[in-house]
Specification:
Blueprint (H helix, E strand, L loop, with lengths): L2 E6 L13 H19 L4 H6 L1 E10 L8 E11 L4 E10 L5 E15 L4 E2 L4 H8 L14 H6 L9 E5 L14 H20 L10 E10 L10 E10 L3 E10 L2 E14 L4 E2 L4 H12 L1
Antiparallel strand pairs: 1-3, 2-5, 2-8, 3-4, 4-5, 5-6, 7-9, 8-11, 9-10, 10-11, 11-12
Helix pairs in contact: 1-5
């Protein structure tokens, strides 16, 4: 069984290309997840919604979504462990011919957490029973992660990185005064844009190659809290392909890593709305950055 949620699309969700911004999709699936648990697990709502941490998000962007009244989201469970569970999501529409148009897929690993004691806990039998109603083993929304991808999210940053200071806003935090998991994507996005500006100049200029995100993974290591002092986001180019490249990043507080990410970006032709090879000059900048 899958939970179906109709998510409202807002004008403020759009980016400069007129597409729903990559960060907004995480907000959409978060709303779908909360709606699923509130609807089908009212007795466990506080424990599974407010009393849980997102440990990891993996996302894949498949097609641009434009402004419309709402978009459909399916949510289901792909794995249940003793102290965590994995949800899968698909954001889609059904066209006039009855064909499904998929915009976005994602998975999230969630761990119940005792905030008063600052420690994780095991799922209760009642919680397992509710989650099992939506269990579809092997029906993940995304391909299995490779060992190389997982190693990349654990490896240390190189000596040469681009740095951006993330100042936490009051609106970034949740009921437990931790920065919401969606906002980490926003911090990584801002750091990535700052890196592009340093490498290529104004990212909105006509001379700059347009890019879209194809895939992104975020692993959460420590909670980020509201405070006057900023956190540092370090970003670097980790791979350059023919029409795509990877940007790795980590949020740190001194020597402590708070979160790590890898984003795969694809160069994009705004006229055809399709992937396109970048100019040689653009690619040369990426290669020079990769080689240090």
């Amino acid at each position: 069984m899958r939970h179906l949620y109709a998510c409202q699309v807002r004008w403020a969700d759009l980016d400069v290309l007129g597409h729903v911004n990559n960060v907004a999709y995480l907000d959409y699936v978060q709303e779908a997840r909360i709606d699923m648990l509130r609807t089908h697990a009212p007795e466990q709502r506080d424990a599974l919604v407010e009393g849980a941490l997102i440990v990891r998000n993996d996302v894949s962007y498949l097609a641009p979504l434009m402004l419309q009244e709402s978009v459909a989201i399916e949510v289901w469970v792909t794995e249940i462990k003793a102290a965590s569970f994995t949800l899968a999501y698909e954001v889609f529409d059904v066209d006039a011919e009855g064909n499904r148009v998929v915009y976005f897929r994602a998975t999230s690993v969630t761990a119940p957490f005792l905030f008063g004691e600052a420690r994780p806990r095991r799922l209760t039998p009642a919680e397992v029973e509710v989650l099992s109603r939506f269990l579809e083993p092997g029906e993940s929304a995304l391909p299995s992660r490779s060992a190389q991808q997982d190693r990349a999210l654990r490896s240390a940053a190189p000596e040469r990185t681009h740095r951006w200071e993330a100042r936490v806003r009051f609106t970034d935090v949740d009921a437990y005064q931790h920065v919401n998991n969606v906002t980490y994507f926003e911090y990584f996005q801002e750091a990535r844009i700052s890196t592009f500006r340093r490498l290529f100049g104004d990212v909105a200029s006509a001379e700059t190659q347009s890019v879209v995100i194809a895939q992104m993974s975020v692993v959460y290591r420590r909670p980020i809290v509201l405070r006057p002092a900023p956190y540092t986001v370090r970003s670097w180019i980790s791979r350059v392909g023919r029409s795509s490249y990877d940007v790795d990043a980590e949020i740190v507080d001194g020597d402590t890593v708070m979160a790590r990410s890898r984003a795969t970006l694809v160069t994009f032709d705004t006229t055809t709305q399709r992937a396109a090879q970048p100019s040689q000059a653009y690619r040369d900048v990426l290669l020079a950055e990769l080689e240090g």
